[in-house]
Amino acid sequence: MALLQISEPGKSQDPHKKSYYIGIDLGTTNSLVAVMQNSSPVVLKDGFNKELFPSIVTYRENSIEVGENKSNNESIVFRSIKRFIGKNLEDLKKEHFYSPCDYFEENNIVKFKVFEKLITPIEITSEILKHLKNISHETLAGEIAGCVITVPAYFDDAQRQATKDAAALSGLKVLRLLNEPTAAAIAYGLQSKKISKVMVYDLGGGTFDVSILDLNDGIFKVLSTGGDSSLGGDDFDNILADHIEQLCNLNLNVESRHRLYLYVKEIKKSLSDNNVVSLNLSKIGLKNKDISITQKDFNLLINDLVKKTLKISKNVLHDAKLEIDEIDEIILVGGSTRTPYIKQMIESYFNKKPLSNINPDNVVAIGASIQADILSGESDEELLLLDVIPLSLGVETMGDLVEVIIPRNSTIPTSSSKEYTTFKDGQNAMSIHVVQGERDLVSDCRSLARFTVKDIPAMLAGSARVNLEFQIDADGILSVSAKETSTNKVTKVEVKPSFGITDAEIEKMLKDSFDNAKEDIAIRNLNESIVEGKRVILSINSALSIDGKDLLSNSEYQEICNARDKLESTFDSNNRDIVIKAIKNLENISEEYVSRRMNSSIEKIMKGKDIKEYN
Amino acid sequence: MTINFNQNYFQLFEIKKNFNVDINILEKNYFELQKKFHPDKYVNATDHEKRLSLQITSYINEAYETLKDDYLKSIYLLKIEGYEFDDQNNTISDPDFLMNQMELREESENIALKKDKEDIKRFYLKLNNLKKECLKEFEKNYCNNFFDEAEKKIKEMKFFISIENDFKKSDL
After folding, report:
1. CB contact under 8 A, A413 and B64
2. Where among B68, B87, B110 does a domain terminate?
3. pLDDT at residue A173 above 90?
4. Cis, bond preceding A413 (omega within 30 deg of 0)
5. What is the gyration radius of the CA atoms in chain B, in angstroms?
6. Would residue B109 count as lying in a domain?
7. A112 and A67 belong to one structural domain
8. Quick one: average pLDDT of A267-271?
9. pLDDT, tens digit, for every residue of A505-519?
10. Does residue A72 belong to any structural domain of this protein?
11. What CATH number is attached to the domain comprising B29?
């Protein structure tokens, strides 16, 4: 039964409904959300006291669920969707990815076939964001006025745009996209340093990223970035599981292997605090053996992988033209950096104790929440992040060559204009191909967008002057405008992003999601009334079996049974109103019965007792 | 929120129009302007203000990067004097210089092939000295209002920079 919410008399329900600005770490494996409260960052928890929300989206015929997938039947489960965002099929071939359903490419966007519907990675990502928004909304009991979302430093224009699109779709206002390593540096308060070079070592569940930042009086510059998109803590688990399987001479089927894999995660965690852990295989339904794993064993097992991360880090340092001794701080990010061996190896390799006192799972979300607070204007802290674009932007010219328009590492926002002219007499349109990357050949760069400049006044070849202005905003996202300068006519630019989606498409998706939301609510309401109906039937049945025959005449008894059966038959009607009407009907008909029951039970209690006992 | 887009970059940062720019003052004033106009300060503002902030900070960033970089600054100084540096048409007709140019190209290719660490270091140093010499000449000519001569020096600079960039690519 619904509980009544009672507010104090004379007060409106929400006198000062507070609005919050949240920081979101949208991760490949897990996502987090944090907020500043009383000048300190707090990572938000859901109703189950969890703060790491698996970035897993499960589609069922009639519902969408975010989080760990509990049942497998009739569902399509998307994991690591971050690997797909802002990419086309060609890019995905280079990635280790697994699709739970058929997919194809349309207008350079990957589309999944999910129960008759076509779903893009942007929509799937927006489900995760919606979930985080709901959690924040519930925990904070306030409006979510805006957010800062973190993205990997190497994310290009298309991936950044797609992330923003996903946020728009989930109804979140994005104040700023923030680079993950920059967020980590903010969490440690490094922006207050005058000048320093920082390495951010981020080892998550499935990905490894390393970035070198140059902090110069409030300017955060990403000097270089690198990593391995298929190296992470999950690999440690697999190696350890393999080792145990061999050691115990096990030959496991898929299901037992999965249980072992989950168990191994626990062992790995306790090996961070203990020198030796003895195995308890009976815990996962296997015959127990007297075997234990030492920290040393584990270190030996993961040694090659750890060395690989150090080698990558050194290469990234080299890209930034820095030597090991020029690094001022190393920051550890990602749950896998809890492994003591990794800390030791980093310390000895770089000859510097890494910063790790902030929970490495939370550090990015915390940085994002600090930035969100500053951007909201509610904080007193003066911090200005002047970001740079990670890759050069250029335009295709004759012969597959790239002409750089905005060089990499330019501080953003920035703009640049270029003048182009027509090639033929009377030419009235011009197509422009924008690419991103550092290579000379168009085919070696990533295609970002193709623009068509239309309505150019007909003139002799070479006399029209089309001035294209490229504008990059503070999030590193490009927009283009065009003007014919000889006539000063503003020409139309048709922007067709090679990746991501057009504004019109976003609008359509947004509308679809509202429509779906309405449908979702209708389904939920129907289900709720059916549950209520079942509850009423259950209590009627149990009452009838106790005293129905004693308190009711035959016809009365039959009347109630009829109303009950009628209610039961409405459950298939798919109509909430009919169900509710039938519930009301049954309740009305049983009203007399209910009052007789109350009287009779009072009589029973009173019977044989002295009236004095009740005084 | 407004700014005069027609003032030159030196006026924007309130520094004297000169080849020698005090980097500390430039940076200080640059940060001041960013603090005032950066889009981060206008996240809750109207669309019009946001667009304005975007335009202003783009202008500030371009100005800052121009004055910070000797080559870009040189071109800009000439531009203020009405000498539009033609990016496309930058041929140098001085036969001596052309000769040097060819020799330097050849040297760069040989060193890139051999990959001897000491040679690479020495070559970078050589290019650096050539650029420095070039800048010095530019400054002298510019101060004496010999703008044609000054422009020639910019073209030479451009050539050294392009050799350096190509060399960096092959060095990676």
Report:
1. no
2. B68
3. yes
4. yes
5. 20
6. yes
7. yes
8. 93
9. 656 666 665 566 666
10. yes
11. 1.10.287.110
Q: How confident is the model at residue A280 (pLDDT cuts 50, 70, 90)?
A: confident
CATH number, domain at A272?
3.90.640.10
| Closest CB to B40 among A411, A416, A474 | A474
Q: What is the CATH number of the domain that holds B131?
A: 1.20.1280.20
Q: A197 is written with which tokens?
A: 């070079």
Same domain for A466 and A516, yes or no, is no
Q: pLDDT for A552-593, tens place per residue?
A: 999 999 999 999 999 998 888 878 888 888 988 998 888 888
Q: Is the pLDDT of residue A14 over 70?
A: no
Q: For A535-545, b where at least 16 C-beta lie within 10 A, e where not — what string? A: ebbeebeebbe
pLDDT (tens digit per residue) in A26-69: 999 999 999 999 889 999 998 888 999 999 999 988 889 998 87
* Same-domain check for residues A71 and A151: yes
Domain membership of residue A466 (yes or no) is yes
> Which of A146, A385, A411 has the CB atom closest to B61's CB atom?
A411
Residue in chain A closest to B40 (alpha carbons) equals A375
Contact (Cβ atoms closer than 8 angstroms) between residue A210 and residue A314: no
Which position among A46, A51, A82, A157 bears the catalytic label? A82
Provide the number of CB pairs (under 8 Å) joining chain A to chain B. Answer: 53
Do the Cβ atoms of B34 and A385 come within 8 Å? no
pLDDT of residue A7: 37
Put simply, the answer to whether B58 touches A175 (Cβ < 8 Å) is no
Single residue among B53, B68, B83 that ends a domain in this structure:
B68
- The first and second tokens of residue A92, run together, are 């995905």
Domain co-membership, A162 together with A49: yes
Q: Are residues A109 and A159 in the same domain?
A: yes
Which among B31, B61, B65 is the nearest to A413, CB-wise? B61
Of the listed A123, A157, A180, A329, which one is catalytic?
A: A180
A530 versus A114: which is more confidently predicted?
A: A114
Please compute, for residue A314, the number of CA atoms within 13 A of its CA located in the half-sphere on the CB side.
11
Vertex A96: Cα angle to A91 and A98 (nearest 5): 100
* Residue from A177, A410, A411 whose CB has the most chain B CBs within 10 Å, to mutate: A411
Work out how many domains chain B is built from and give that number: 2
Which domain range does residue A402 map to? 393-501
Indicate if the pLDDT at residue A3 is higher than 60.
no
A212 domain-assigned: no
Pair A251, A158 in one domain: no
Instruction: Determine, yes or no, domain membership for B21.
Output: yes
> Which segments of A26-142 are extended strands (E)?
30-37, 40-43, 53-54, 56-60, 64-66, 75-79, 103-106, 109-114, 117-119
For residue A217, which residues of chain B lie inside 8 Å, CB to CB? 27, 31
Q: Are A35 and A50 in contact (CB under 8 A)?
A: no
Whether B27 sits inside 8 A of A217 (CB atoms) is: yes
Pick A187 or A86 by higher pLDDT: A187
Q: Measured between CB atoms, does B35 come within 8 Å of chain A?
A: yes
The two three-digit tokens of residue A124, written as one number: 């799937």
